[in-house]
Amino acid sequence: MIFGGNLKFIKAIFASALVLAFAMPAFAETQNVKVSGSIDAYYFNRDGYDLADNDAGVDGAPGAGAGGSAVQRSEGDSFFTGITQVEVSADLTDNVSTVVNVVNQRDWNARVQDAVTENATSEFDIILDLAYVQMKEIFYSPLTLTVGRQDIWFGRGFIIGNNNRAWDPSATLQANEYSVTTAFDAIRATLDFNPWTVDAFYSKIDENNTNPEDDIDLFGANVNYKFAEYNAVAEGYWFSEIDRGTLSGAAGTFNNDTHTIGGRVQFDPISQITLGAELAYQMGDYRSALGGATRDRDAWGFDIFGTYRFDYTWKPELTLEYVHFSGSDATATTEEYSGWNSLYRGKFWTAYGDFREFVYGTVDAADQSATTNQNMLQAKAGFKPLEDLLVEGAFSWFWVDEEIAGRNDDLGWEFDAIVTYDYTEDVSFGLLAGWFVPGDFYNAPNDETATDIVSSVKVTF
Fold first, then answer.
1. Whole-angstrom Cα distance, residue 41 to residue 430?
2. Domain containing 441: what range?
3. How many CA atoms lie within 13 A of 218 on its CB side?
4. What is the pLDDT of residues 255-303, one digit of tens each?
């Protein structure tokens, strides 16, 4: 592939930029230092996360396609979680700044996380989340160079926004989707030609051994244009993941390469309405197992949405959204692979449906990850009966894109209700209640309703 062949050249460019960036005095004068952070506490009460009726424990491996935890959740799971962050940022001379953020995230006094192994020693681990230096107007006035462990989010986070491979590195959380460790080890160059913004980046996702034959690399570019009217924005992008790590071993190294090209438009035709759409196409190579046939990728993903804001005192608004991730015929072994690769998506719409067979396995062996082969139609409403109180509700319906042999297309529906109260500017309380009702895709007794109740208090400083 042309993309894979250029990887060494792209690495060389970014390596050169890194050398130049650090070819500066070893000591810099500190102009300003800021310390900030947050303390978040959660209480979870969950039932039926494995969709098994009257399940009192772990049942074994989840269905094919699960990319997350290899266990199911039993009836009546309840636990507390605390997430603490401390961030130090410093402004130095000559438009140079640094940021370091450390995190502790843990289930309160839980000795066995994920029902797999004893993990008492990691409960109070301090995790390095962010550690980067940013140099503005370096070499060229519109250019900003950011080097180190950093957050990367483009657009609405449909493709790039969340490094899910960095979730819960100490294995101290049950609810991995609440992890705040989402950063990338990356080098990022940003050109600000207002109203144009051009970004290019390279990220080392997984080094494995220090040779390049078992790495996972991510790189790409994003071009954004903000219009002067209608609060409009348009962007186009190209992202490539070169995965030599997933299928590396004694039998050799086999690539799983995903090249994603796409674009997004969003605008307000009138002040009360926002309309938008994002379309992306994936090509590259796909191999399911060591020694398996290499198949060409041919996958699609898109997101169409619209929001209407009513002109009333309580500020009600209604959003309709349709999300599509293409699927592939599970019985095919040589034809084009059309299953969507969610890569490092930052946007999630639901409490449970987005994480089925991705974070939480079900007992259904035919179930696939919610990150692929899925359509979702969602209606979401919100209003503010008080200035400091936000009430939201979302109804989501899921169905498969590519039919799975012998199964109905209807995956089910979910209702999520969220209440957020801002006690002060720094303290907020939250309550989430969600119900996922399996559709006809699932067969009894593995069609139990999954429920999720999460209460939280969040403090920022």
1. 10
2. 2-460
3. 21
4. 789 999 999 999 999 999 999 999 999 999 998 877 778 899 999 999 9
